[in-house]
Amino acid sequence: MAIPLSAYLILSGILFTCGVLGFLIKRNIITIFMSIELMLNGVNLSFVAFAAQWHSLSGQIFVFFVMVVAAAEAAVGLAIIIAVYRTRETLNVDQVNLLKL
Amino acid sequence: MSWTTLAHAFPILLAQAQIFAAPSGAEYMRILPELVLSVFGMIIMVVDPLLDEKRSHKSLGAIGIIGALAALASTYWMAQNPGSAFWNMVRVDGFSIFFHVLVIAIAVVAILSSYEYMAVQRIRAGEYYGLILFGTVGMCLMSSAVELVLIFIALEISSISTYILAGFRRREASSSESSLKYFLLGSFATAFFLYGVAMMFGATGSTNIDAISNALRSGGTPALAYVAMALMFIGLGFKVASAPFHIWTPDVYEGAPAPIVGLMSTGPKAAAFAVLLRVMFEINAPGRFWVIWVSAALSMTLGNVGALVQDNIKRLLAYSSIAHAGYVLVAFAAQPELGTSAVMFYTAAYAAMNVGAFAVVSHFANAGEKYLTLEDYAGLGRRSPMLAATLTFFLMSLIGIPITGGFFGKFYIFSAALKSNLIGLTVIGLVNSAVGAYYYLRVIVSMYMSEPRREVPVMPTPPAMGFAIGLCALATLYLGVLPGRVLDYATQSASQLLHGITVSGSLINYSNNPER
Predict the structure, then answer these.
(1) pTM attached to this predicted model
(2) Tally of CB atoms within 10 A around B249
């Protein structure tokens, strides 16, 4: 039985929304960062689903680029998180509040 | 297979057939500035560990300046080879040449103003200059990319470099905090942009801007395309710091090194505006008008009102940059023919005055960026008359007083808005300009009319910094006195951008066009 396109899109929407909620609710920087990765993976799922629907490879190739960029972002992001931890000794965003928002 | 599907598949097959032809020399010429910048960036990374730590930043800075100037020169050869390259991923037209020159010029001035700053702040230079060059590669590619894949990668190249640059004052907790905030919110926004791209791919079956525009024009507008535009606008709205996606701006600008703030408040912003122009006008984005209208009005109002209560000059200029993003968005709501050239002129004028203002701020801030409040600026008119005068000039330009670039920038934007019957938005914009004058004048009044409360040392202006500030002042003056040439160029390339696509329906190839 073929799974319809809408199922993939709904799942991808749910993943993306989970990521957004995690970003907004969670207080630990690492968890926030993981939420962003979850959002990117939600996007990847819809790219692949649309690629299958359009019989076009470009959607799948896009996913490769997204994964590469996400890896680069992870490297830089974790380095920044370490720099923050060295100066503040905390990973709670509520305590990283030197600059008033 | 029916005839209609065959006819539909034919251009795609043609496009795929091109894949097997190797790129020609002319195609490499079309990305020459990016190649030059990357090569020099890599030279810096390789040379850095070989150098003596104490003297390294001078030589690395020199390599950086040479690289940026070489890239600026290479835009000439790029301009000699207009057309699309690499399977219609990159397009060189007047529009992309304009933004290449602008962004690379910003990088030159940013490197010049960092040259002595790094020694004063005792920052180990290392990859600093390399990152500026790599970031510039991303910004350049953003302006010439006509494929959403490349736009996404270019956006990330420029963003990731600026995330790192924002945290370069590593000993200061505020700098790494600014870097963290920029990084988290920036990646959050990128995810939205990417989701928009996925939706656009789902709606049209392509990620090429020409193909998307054709699909939307011929096949009607599916609901998915509206969602896609909204999501992409969220992502790009963050990059240009327009309300309601502006929250990060003051914090990031306050903590980041001042010359970098000058760079990132103008370079990535100009590039993101270039992408917005391509996405909004070349695709002829559906349902964009009210989204842009609301965002422009909000940005102008929140930016100017927020700036009124700031005492820290970097935060003040950050709120002012939100307000200026709002002014630029006004032009996006206008008719494409009028709006595009106004946006291009404004980004150039804004770059000249804002990079200049931040160069002066970074010099006054001194070691550890200690002197940033308005009180520290008291009495500067007497202690450092030349610098105070140039800062006054930049601030007047930000207000929009005649004989400065800022005046003509605002003038073209609001006249474009009026010609497109955007009375409400124009009124909001003009009221906001008046409000804005108040807080810029506060800085000027503080410099010339109040007595300093604490001892603020003023060092003599070092040569590279002085040169950078002079260049910005000259550019601001030039755009304010003789705006004609830049505006003509902007108008020409705007009509190229808009009509190059509408006249010749399908995938266009400038190099085969007899007119060129």
Answers:
(1) 0.91
(2) 26
